[in-house]
Structure formats: structure tokens, C-alpha cells
Amino acid sequence: MPAARPEPPANPYTVLGVATNATEQEIKQAWRRQARRYHPDVSKAPDAEARFKALADAHRLLKDPARRAAYDRGDPDPETHPGFHQPPPQRSTRPSQRAQRRPAGRGPSIDEDFFSGTQGDSASELLEALLRQHQQDTPPQDQTAELQISVEEACTGGHRLVQLQGHHHSGQSDGLRELDVTIPPGMADGQRLRLAGQAGVDALGRHGDVVLTVHLQPHPLFSVQGRDISLQLPVTPWEAALGAQVTLPTPTGSLTLTVPPDSPGGRRLRLSGRGIPGKPAGDLYAVLQLVLPRADTPDARAAYAEFARQLPFDARPAWAH
Question: Domain extents for the chain?
Fold first, then answer.
């Protein structure tokens, strides 16, 4: 089995993502851009520490004209190669205050060893720029809440005053505040309503959004499934048998509904597009519910007896033997 060959050192131009004829300014810009992306204090990439170290090594080589020229000539001296072949710079044996304060297990911090020679850019200035860029790349936090509305409001829209806890960027509440929320027609159960810029202020002075999850309140007449609305329509036996014009309540107002003759109990009469608005809109279903007069007087009982004589009817034909 052939012996494994050592992996060659990384090409510093490839590491920084620049051409071999890149100018000093282009190398500097590439280093700053990549450092912002992969510094372990900012990046969440699992290999951020290793990539940042390789970037720092590549930048340290290419920013030095003499070392860069030697590398371009193919000088085999390890001092001119990027990666981990270079000896570390001379440091004091006494740890710096920054190193003493650094938590164990963290990646390399931004220090003057990585950023020396960047034409006046101090470590603290670059770290501040990195953190500011990280904050700017992170959207402001949204605030969520629940909003209970009626079936009528789901169909016609409306206004609600909603009380929300205010939030400071420190995470502490700054008291209750009230929002006048406009409810557009067509809000179905579980749908979200986004109020842009109405959340609290973050550390950069930005407002997130308030996101309200809509829930429909129980209704004494209407039941809702998706965008369809159903209600029970009580009718008398003669209305169901002979047909009738009845007044039907709906979430947007009353209307006249025709009950067809010879309609059985449980029949669903569909009113297209009369449900919750949308694309497409839901439908409204009136479910016929037969209501029998009570036989609680002599005249009522006599009427039922006459009805039975005049109209013999077997309500259980399937049971006949």
C-alpha cells in the first residue's frame, strides 16, 4: 500500500479568493470581507475557526511584498508558505489581559497579530465593525400575539384595539401599549396578520413587526370550516314539504332563501361565495332542520290524528318484514 502523501499547503490566493495579480487594495478588501464572514466571534459555521486562521495566514503572506514575491517565485522556504508551516510571531511569555479574560474553549479573538499591517485598522475597530455588520445582517425581532375576532369580522373586516407588552432591546418590558388594528375582510382561522414596524426597538433603533395569529370566536349560529360557513335552518314540516321563502341570517346581513318543495331534514342548501372572502371565497350552507309543533293541546293532538288519517306514511320502510 503506497504511503500517504502530505497534503500540500493551501494557495493563499485561493484562500482569500483573489487573482494572482491582485493589487494590495484588492487583497486588503478580500481579507476584510472574508474576516467578517468567518470570524469565530460572529460566524456560526462549524469550521469558522479553521477558515479564519487560514485566511489570516494567507493575508499575512500576501500583504508582505517580499514574502509574496518569494512565494510567486516558488521559493521552497516554509517561511514563505501560508497555512500552519510558518512559525508563530514572537510574543511575550506573559499573557495579555485580553487573553486572560477570554473564556476557555472559544476560537481566536480579533487581535493585533491577525490584523497588523492593515493600514491603521485597530483590532477593536474591526471587531466593532464585525459585530455591527452581524447585527445589521440579523433582522429585528418580531413580536407575536393572538387576536380573537368574530365570524362577522372575518367576513366584513373591522377594527380592534389590541394591548401588547412593549419591549426594550435589553429584553425588559417598557409597559403596555395599545394598537388600533385594522382587520381586513377574509381573515380565516389561523391566518397571520403582520403589522410592519410596530414591535419594540432593538439595539440599532430598528422596529420589528407585530405578528398577530387570528382565531375565530365561537358563534351561536355559525360554524366555520376553512372558509365555508354553515348554520342550522329550522323549518316546519309544511315548509319542507310544500316549499317556502324564509329569512336567513348571514355574517353580512339577512337574505331571503327559497326552500325547495319536498326537502328532507338535513338537506344542505348552498349559497356560493357567501362564506369568508378569499381566492376563492368560501360558501354558506343552510342545513334544514325539521321542527315539529308540540302536541300539547287537544286541538294539536286532533290535528296530528287527522294528518295521520289523511296521509298514511311509513317512516321505517326498511324495517318492514
Answer: 12-86+99-137, 143-216, 223-310
Is a pLDDT exceeding 50 seen at residue 3? no
User: Is there a contact between 150 and 200 (Cβ–Cβ < 8 Å)?
Assistant: no
Q: Which residues contact 129 (CB under 8 A, 6 or more apart)?
A: 36
Q: Which CATH class is domain 143-216?
A: mainly beta
Q: Which residue has the higher pLDDT, 112 or 135?
A: 135
Q: Coil, helix or strand for 175?
A: strand
Residue 108 has pLDDT above 80, yes or no: no
* 12-86+99-137 against 143-216: fold identical: no
**pLDDT at site 110:** 44
pLDDT in tens, 144-159: 899 999 999 999 999 9
Cα-atom radius of gyration of the chain, to the nearest Å?
Answer: 38
DSSP 129: H
Distance CA 157, CA 150 (A): 10
Query: DSSP letter string over 227-267?
Result: TEEEEEEEE-HHHHHH-EEEEE--TT--EEEEEPTTPPTTP
Does domain 223-310 fall under CATH 1.10.10.10? My reply is no
Distance CA 72, CA 54 (A): 18
